[in-house]
Amino acid sequence: MTRVIAIDGLGGDHAPDIVVEGLRLNAERNPDISYIITGPIERMKAAFGSLKIDGDRISYVDAPDHVAMNAKPSQAVRQGRNSSLWKAIEEVKEGRAHAIVSGGNTGALMAMSALQLRTIEGVDRPAIAAIWPTLRSESVVLDVGANLEADANQLTQFALMGVEFARLGLGVRKPTIGLLNIGSEDQKGREEIREAQDLLQAMDDTSFAYHGFVEGNDIGKGTVDVVVTDGFTGNIALKSAEGTAKQVGDYLRAALSRSIGGRIGYFLAKGALVAFKRRVDPRRVNGGPLLGLNGLVVKSHGGTDGVGFASALDLAVDLAKAGIIDKLHQRVSIMHQKATESSQVVSA
Question: What is the DSSP secondary structure assignment for residue 282, as one 8-state letter?
Answer without folding.
Answer: G
